[in-house]
UniProtKB/TrEMBL annotation:
PANTHER family: KINESIN LIGHT CHAIN (PTHR45783). This is Uncharacterized protein. TPR repeats lie at residues 127-160, 197-230, 239-272. Residues 313-334 are annotated as: Disordered. GO terms for biological process: microtubule-based movement. One of its GO terms (molecular function) is kinesin binding. It comes from Elaphomyces granulatus. It holds the Pfam family TPR_10. PROSITE patterns: TPR, TPR_REGION. Belongs to the kinesin light chain family. GO terms for cellular component: cytoplasm; kinesin complex; microtubule.
Length: 334
């Protein structure tokens, strides 16, 4: 029964928002049961260790996530060998965690290990790892390297999955954001293109960087409506767009609208991810800065004290992105 419930959590059959604590209890029970019945080094036990690490990362418990990933990695290396695809998936997960922690030198080593291992196991150019290296190089400011990685990833995805696959579209989005960072705004707009909600979101980021604030607002509103319909108002991707719309309202001087928008984002993140998650804390910081702009100094102090308790503060360089994209300042990617 426990294992079935775990599978249902991973497949999304149970409502995800607000269920992280319940999921943790289920994974812990499954882990104890598997370790007792099969042994701590059994591959099924190690899969649950890895899944529990993923959950801890979603909860913002990065220290606990690292311990679980390290435990899973050591066990899989022993059970499967260092170049098995399951081992390499855990290497990749650990690298993604290091991104969250800002340990970029270690990230590069892990991604390179994953890439080399996948070359042996699957042939050259494991596409997910190539894409992740592009993200890493972008964050490191090595802006010539990511374009090569993204173009390589695009070719791999298009060949293996087809031009309309979500992985292909995510890499197109990443390439568009890279062009934005490089100041190649025409190339960025071509790469991002019209239509898809994440693409519309990214066009909002692009227009904001060009100081086309009215166009940016239209894109964010369009993206928000699409995500609310497709994903629901409490989905984290929807909330990311809400947060970004709040930032735009600040730039436009619409401070009351910004406050309402940040409050919505904050309440949603707290419910979906928990009070200590990095995306929640980004919004806490944004709201604190807004309260300062409004002259609400008591409210601002409360927000900043909360942020400081969690190890961040005003205008901290927080990486709020998970997975496919990197954050822009205190903006959260869709």
């Amino acid at each position: 029964m426990v294992i079935l419930l775990v599978k249902r959590f991973r497949s999304g059959a149970l409502p995800y928002p607000g269920k992280l604590d319940e999921a943790e209890k289920i994974y812990q029970r499954a882990l104890q049961g598997k370790a007792k019945a099969l042994g701590p080094g059994h591959t099924s036990t190690l899969d649950t260790v890895n899944n529990l690490a993923n959950l801890y990362r979603d909860q913002g418990k990065l220290g606990e996530a690292e311990k679980m990933y390290q435990r899973a990695l050591q066990g899989m290396e022993k059970a499967w060998g260092p170049d098995h695809t399951s081992t390499l998936s855990t290497v990749n997960n650990l690298a993604n965690l290091y991104v969250d922690q800002g340990r970029l030198d270690e990230v590069e080593k892990m991604y390179q290990r994953s890439l080399q291992g996948h070359k042996k196991a699957l042939g050259p150019g494991h596409t997910d790892t190539v894409n992740n290296l592009g993200l890493l190089y972008t964050k490191q400011g090595k802006l010539d390297e990511p374009e090569k990685m993204y173009q390589r990833a695009l070719q791999g995805y298009e060949k293996a999955l087809g031009p309309g696959h979500t992985s292909m579209l995510n890499t197109v989005n990443n390439l568009g954001l890279l062009y934005t960072d490089q100041g190649k705004l025409n190339e960025a707009e071509k790469a991002l293109g019209p239509g898809h909600t994440n693409t519309v979101d990214n066009l909002g980021i692009l227009y904001k960087s060009q100081d086309k604030l009215d166009e940016a607002e239209k894109m964010y509103q369009r993206a928000l409506q699409g995500k609310e319909k497709a994903l629901g108002p409490g989905h984290t991707s929807t909330l990311n767009t809400v947060n970004n719309l709040g930032l735009l309202y600040v730039d436009q001087g619409k401070l009351d609208e910004a406050e309402k928008t940040y409050q919505r984002a904050l309440q949603g993140y707290e419910k979906a991810l928990g009070p200590g998650h990095i995306s929640t804390l980004v919004t806490v910081d944004n709201l604190g800065l807004l309260y300062m702009d409004q002259g609400k100094l008591d409210e601002a102090e409360k927000m900043h004290q909360r942020a400081l308790r969690e190890g961040v503060g005003p205008r901290s360089h927080i990486n709020a992105g998970h997975g496919q994209q990197l954050g822009h300042s205190l903006q959260i990617p869709g």
